[in-house]
Specification:
Number of domains of chain A: 1
CATH topology of the largest domain in chain B: MetI-like fold
Number of domains of chain B: 2
Shape of chain A: globular
CATH architecture of the largest domain in chain B: Orthogonal Bundle
Low-confidence stretches of chain B: none
CATH class of the largest domain in chain B: Mainly Alpha
Strand order of the largest sheet of chain A: 1-2
Number of helices of chain B: 17
Oligomer: heterodimer
Mean pLDDT of chain B: 88
Order of helices and strands of chain B: HHEHEHHHEEHEEHHHHHHHHHH
Distance between the termini of chain B: 50 Å
Distance between the termini of chain A: 56 Å
CATH superfamily of the largest domain in chain B: MetI-like
Helix content of chain A: over 70%
CATH topology of chain A: MetI-like fold
Order of helices and strands of chain A: HHEEHHHHHHHH
Number of strands of chain A: 2
Strand content of chain A: under 5%
Structural class of chain A: mainly alpha
Low-confidence stretches of chain A: none
Number of strands of chain B: 6
CATH architecture of chain A: Orthogonal Bundle
Strand order of the largest sheet of chain B: 2-3-1-4
CATH class of chain A: Mainly Alpha
Number of helices of chain A: 10
Largest sheet of chain A: 2 strands, antiparallel
Largest sheet of chain B: 4 strands, mixed
Chain lengths: 290, 396
């Protein structure tokens, strides 16, 4: 009898210890995020003002703002979206609505997964060899945007496919029974229903694009440009590359530090906003559908 | 009309459906075409020759041997099977030690004659000179440096891509650097990742889970360059202080940052697997008298072990391919590390740091593409691994 009680006690004690430990680790994760965010916010918040956001760097990167880098990142987001949004969504549609189940679908899915696993620096290498050299775009906004677009394709494809998969077949059948063609069904019934999740995926892919550095190192990023780009074959400055440059190289690292903190904070705010937007969109559409 | 439009749109869908496959093929083609000629290019720098006295019995020297001679580590021809003769190293800018400006001519028109003369007069000389000076009537004998060999690249312990007269492309320091950093990163991330996924799927209430989920999404959303910057200004000095080192930019610093970056991958994949454990199995275990922890590690974890493995493997892949953060905090010295507390350099960081400075098509450029191929093959293998793990799980 005693043995049983002791066993029960021990069992419950082990559970307390184990669950306590996993709770502690989880609190630590939150702690890590809080430390990183608050460190950059506290150090960077004093730097950010209207002038910082609206002027170009001066005095060898030690003074002035980051306006050209913000504009550049905006161009790159726009360029990659123009390419990756339609292609990614169409690819997702093909996978869920058209592709024959079985080998073809499995093959495409494996390839998409493989593409998402390729390190971003390999995308950079490929972008340089293909877009910059082979297609002769030069180091330019086009080359950078296309490289970044390829990078976020898998994310868009996967979210689109998941979004469409979640829609019950009865809707498709109902629409077809009323005489609509497959394409009409797609545009009038399926896509509107899947839109919230698709849009969430698109927003998250913008987040990914805006923070990537390695793919643009050799395809479009410039250390410093005296004026804003005038065409799609110009180089641009970009926020993540700018942060890398002023954090690691330059004449006066100490004087550059405040600007680096400011740039990091702008990047963080961008990421926070994008995540927030994704959540809001998801909630808004979810309510509307109900 | 309408039918044709539909056909058109549908064929557009089909083409887009294969876009990822096409991209993969293109990536393979262009990585290989960028790197494949490395093993056919001559070891000795393009446009230059290495020459010795015509009586010297040596015909060929490997890049490593050339480096040891030009670094004055080896000073006698006997070492290479030649005569017992002191080695005299000659580079073009040494020429003023031997000849006056008059000897060389007003417009340096006699330079090649003088070099030829110098080489014929010195038995032990080895000269590294531009090709144009080794034309007709050249008295010296050109050394055959051979082509860059597979064994020198994959077995070489030195990565000195800008060394003269023959650059060294030994990959071992970079490969070991990458492996060390990712291994320690996973070692650090594993207990965190597993604990958090257990917490989220087994312990936390829906509300607490609702807080943790966005935290993890944010962690994966922070750009790698911001992690690198944070590492540079916070973790680097911290590591330096704690371990009392000369520099804080070490492998461990990289591992710490990489651990944080690999966490979201590990957590989301393994938590997903744990939550997929059927309710009936949990309830069966609980009804037999097991408590929740016993159920967790005797039922839930064994059930979801393939998912957890996938998460960890994907985390390793993420860590091995990460570029910017590692580039900023590991110190980037291309030596084979003996401890994790010394600066090291990874494959992605090498590509990022050096590709901007090389001329297109040079052996160095091609060597960087070979590095890209290696990275691609590793991550491709990792993804195939994960795919087969999950396929096996579905079947069983």
């Amino acid at each position: 009898m005693d043995d049983t009680i002791q066993y029960e006690l021990k069992k419950n004690l082990t559970q307390k210890v184990a669950f306590g430990a996993v709770t502690l680790f989880s609190v630590a994760i939150v702690g890590i995020l809080v430390v990183i965010l608050s460190f950059i916010i506290i150090k960077g918040v004093g730097v950010i003002n209207w002038e910082f956001l609206s002027t170009a760097p001066t005095d060898g990167m030690t003074k002035g703002g980051i306006f050209p880098a913000i504009v550049g990142t905006f161009y790159l987001i726009l360029g990659s979206a123009l390419f990756a949004f339609p292609v990614g969504i169409m690819s997702g549609i093909y996978m869920n609505e058209y592709a024959p189940k079985g080998f073809v679908l499995r093959f495409i899915r494996t390839m998409t997964n493989n593409l998402s696993g390729i390190p971003s620096i390999v995308f950079g290498l490929f972008g340089m060899a293909f877009f910059v050299k082979q297609l002769n775009f030069g180091t330019s906004i086009v080359a950078g945007s296309l490289t970044l677009g390829l990078l976020c394709l898998p994310l868009i494809i996967r979210t689109t496919e998941e979004a469409l998969k979640a829609i019950p077949d009865s809707y498709r059948e109902g629409s077809r029974a009323l005489g609509a063609t497959k394409l009409q069904t797609l545009f009038r019934v399926i896509l509107p229903m899947g839109m919230p999740n698709i849009v969430t995926g698109l927003i998250l892919s913008v987040g990914r694009v805006s923070g990537e550095t390695a793919p643009i190192l050799f395809t479009c990023a410039a250390f410093f440009l005296p004026q804003l780009p005038t065409g799609i074959f110009d180089q641009v400055m970009a926020l993540p590359y700018h942060l890398y440059v002023i954090a690691t190289s330059g004449g006066d690292l100490e004087a550059q530090r405040p600007i680096a903190y400011g740039t990091a904070l702008v990047l963080i705010i961008l990421v926070l906003l994008i995540n927030l937007l994704a959540t809001v969109v998801r909630r808004y559409f979810a309510k509307k559908l109900k | 009309m309408r039918n044709r439009a539909e056909k058109l749109v549908e064929s557009l869908f089909t083409i887009s459906g294969f876009v990822t496959s096409i991209v993969i093929v293109l990536v393979v083609v262009f990585l290989f075409s960028g790197g494949v000629h490395l093993f056919r290019s001559p070891s000795i720098e393009h446009g230059y020759v290495v020459a010795v006295n015509a009586d010297n019995p040596i015909d060929r020297l490997s890049p490593a041997e050339l480096k040891s001679i030009f670094d004055y580590e080896q000073t006698n021809w006997q070492q290479f099977g030649g005569a017992d003769e002191e080695i005299l190293v000659f580079r073009l800018n040494d020429i003023t030690n031997y000849f006056s400006e008059e000897d060389l001519g007003e417009n340096f028109e006699f330079v090649s004659e003088r070099i030829s003369q110098l080489i014929s007069e010195n038995q032990g000389i080895i000269a590294f000179i531009p090709q144009e000076y080794a034309g007709e009537n050249f008295s010296g004998k050109e050394i055959d440096g051979g082509t860059i060999s597979l064994s020198e690249v994959f077995g070489g312990k030195e990565w000195l891509p800008t060394a003269t007269p023959a650059p060294l492309f030994g990959l071992l320091p970079l490969i070991t650097g990458t492996l060390w950093v990712s291994f320690f990163a996973i070692l650090i991330a594993l207990p965190f990742g597993l604990s958090v996924s257990i917490f989220m799927s087994e312990v936390a209430s829906e509300r607490v889970r609702g807080i943790l989920k966005p935290v993890i999404e944010l962690l994966s959303g922070i750009p790698s360059v911001v992690y690198g910057f944070f590492g540079l200004v916070v973790v680097v000095p911290l590591v330096q202080q704690i371990f009392n080192l000369d520099v804080g930019e070490t492998g461990l610093t990289g591992s710490l940052i990489l651990a944080i970056m690999a966490l979201p991958t590990i957590i989301t994949v393994s938590e997903d697997a744990m939550r997929n454990c059927p309710r009936a199995m949990r309830e069966a275990s609980l009804s037999l008298g097991a408590n929740r922890w016993q159920t967790t590690y005797k039922v839930v974890i064994p059930y979801s072990i393939s998912g957890i493995t996938s998460g960890v493997v994907l985390g390793i892949g993420r860590a091995m391919g990460e570029t910017m953060a590692v580039l900023m905090v590991t110190g980037n010295s291309a030596v084979i590390p003996h401890t994790i507390l010394q600066p090291l350099r990874t494959i992605p960081a090498t590509i990022a740091a050096e590709l901007g400075e090389v001329s297109s098509g040079s052996p160095h450029y091609q060597a960087l593409f070979v590095l890209g191929i290696i990275l691609f093959v590793i991550t491709f293998a990792i993804n195939m691994c994960v795919a087969s793990i999950s396929a096996k799980h579905k079947n069983s």
